[in-house]
Specification:
Blueprint (H helix, E strand, L loop, with lengths): L4 E5 L4 E5 L7 E4 L4 E5 L6 E6 L2 H5 L9 E2 L8 H11 L8 E6 L7 E6 L7 H5 L7
Antiparallel strand pairs: 1-2, 2-5, 3-4, 4-5, 6-8, 7-8
């Protein structure tokens, strides 16, 4: 697949962003709204499932919404690092942003935000991502 594909379900307000397919895959809950499907080595993102999509892309008076990646807490340290590296990869940058919230000098909480550019104007954004594997 060379073009990302989206499937939106208005009844559940869910958006599936399909980036690739693989014979073997793993699925991780990033938080209560987002799941990611990867290869077993956590090097290729096959898909992102975004539930309550309207909420995820809704702007606040302060800008984009960010959500904690609290699903990472259930994973082993190596899986956390690989999954974060995958989310930070250049291939996913058009679709999401990862940042850190630092409530204190010793605590850092990884956060994620979904770009609204993956919504419904597929012609516009697909033309920018022709080289996605």
């Amino acid at each position: 697949m060379t073009q990302p594909q989206t499937t939106y379900d208005p009844e559940s307000d869910s958006l599936l962003l399909r980036l690739a397919y693989g014979a073997e895959w793993l699925q991780f809950d990033l938080n209560e709204y987002m799941q990611v499907e990867t290869d077993p080595e956590l090097q290729i993102c096959y898909a992102l499932m975004l539930n309550d999509y309207s909420l995820l892309i809704a702007q606040t008076k302060y800008g984009q919404r960010f959500f904690p990646l609290d699903g990472l807490q259930t994973l082993h340290q190596e899986q956390q690092e690989r999954l974060l590296a995958l989310l930070l990869s250049q291939g996913l940058q058009p679709f999401l942003s990862v940042a850190a919230f630092t409530p204190s000098l010793v605590d850092t909480v990884p956060m994620i935000s979904i770009h609204d550019s993956i919504s419904f104007n597929q012609v516009e954004w697909q033309s920018r991502f022709e080289q996605y594997p």
